[in-house]
Amino acid sequence: MTITTTRHHALFFGEVEGVDLARPMTDTLFAEIEAAFHEHAILLFRGQRVTDAQHVAFSEWFGPVFTATKYSWKDEKRRLRDDMADISNLDHDGGLLPTDDPRRDHARGNQLWHTDNTFKHVPSRCSVLAAHTIPATGGNTQFADMRAAYDALSEAKKEEIDGLILEHCITYSRERMGFTGFTDAARAELPPVRQVLVRENPATGRKSLYIAAHAGRVIGWPDKEGRALIDELIAFATQPQFVHEHVWRDGDLIVWDNRCTMHRVTPFNEMQDVRDLRRVTVSDEINSVERAGLVAAE
Ligand SMILES: [Fe+2]
């Protein structure tokens, strides 16, 4: 065994030591990392000084990497390469975004509990986020273990939600935060998609809730009841016993399993402090409803 892993939380979130991600990966080492990933759902690597290319190369060991989502209302000029999502308050030239820039409003949607890319037909397996510049205070990331949350549901609730399918759309989470910048063209680019509510990790057989602020409807249910169930489950799954808050340090790199965790950022002084994090998002293999062999009822 090359790596050691220490949990920061009773349920999940392991810190991995003994790995320099700037060095070439090997099959043996990655097998250890992947086993730890399945066990802890989230892995922290500290003191990493990876280039963007090394960051992407490490992420590719987990699966194919998404091209970052492009929104037609956003500035066409990007600060980062096309396969990196820019999790910062910076413009393409590295200066702070103007105070009235719609990208600031859009980014505030990340303060809601979510998991990345559930609003895409083939969602994300995991995200790999590297910290380059951290604000003086705030801007922490809270994570919730959706495996433990599922396990803690009553048998009656498990039975009630078994087989349900949710509709996810980026506009649901942004509209919850009051963001109204989506044009018709932008809405057409990312139409609603369907994902299962309970999913199973094929590698471990462990079930988890699969919910997010991007979820807006339960298929086959009236809108109001569906929304109430989604809100109820998010509230249940983010109780303190399921949550770990990570305070970032420069050089931290975190891989989280988007299939069985949620996360959100805590507020910071975004008009003054730079927060520069860069995310590579790894794709899953298939839409979760298709994987489960379910058919959505209208
Ligand atoms: Fe996110």
Task: Give an account of the 3D structure.
By secondary structure, the chain is of the alpha+beta class. The strands form four sheets. Strands 1-2-3-13-5-15-4 form a seven-stranded mixed β-sheet, with helices on one face. The chain has a three-stranded antiparallel β-sheet with strand order 12-6-14. 25% of the residues lie in helices and 24% in strands. The protein has helices at residues 27-40, 52-59, 102-107, 146-152, 155-161, 170-176, 184-189, 223-237, 288-292, and strands at 4-7, 14-17, 42-45, 85-88, 124-133, 141-145, 165-168, 193-196, 198-200, 207-209, 215-218, 243-246, 253-257, 261-265, 276-283. Fe (ii) ion is lined by residues 110, 114, 116, 263. Residues 110, 114, 116, 263 line the site of fe (ii) ion.
Summarize the structure.
The chain has 298 residues and is of the alpha+beta class.
Instruction: Give the low-pLDDT segments.
Output: none
Structural domains: how many: 1
Order of helices and strands: EEHEHEHEEHHEHHEEEEHEEEEH
Strand content: 15-25%
State the end-to-end distance. Answer: 50 Å
Give a list of the ligands: fe (ii) ion
- Multimer state: single chain
Biggest sheet strand order reads 1-2-3-13-5-15-4
Number of helices: 9
Number of strands: 15
Q: What is the helix fraction of residues, given as a range? A: 25-40%
Taking all Cα atoms into account, the compactness measure Rg is 19 Å
What does the largest sheet look like?
A: 7 strands, mixed
Q: What is the CATH topology?
A: Double-stranded beta-helix
Task: Supply the CATH class.
Answer: Alpha Beta
Under CATH, the homologous superfamily reads: Clavaminate synthase-like
**What's the average pLDDT?**
93
Structural category: alpha+beta
Give the name of the CATH architecture. Answer: 4-Layer Sandwich
Overall outline: globular
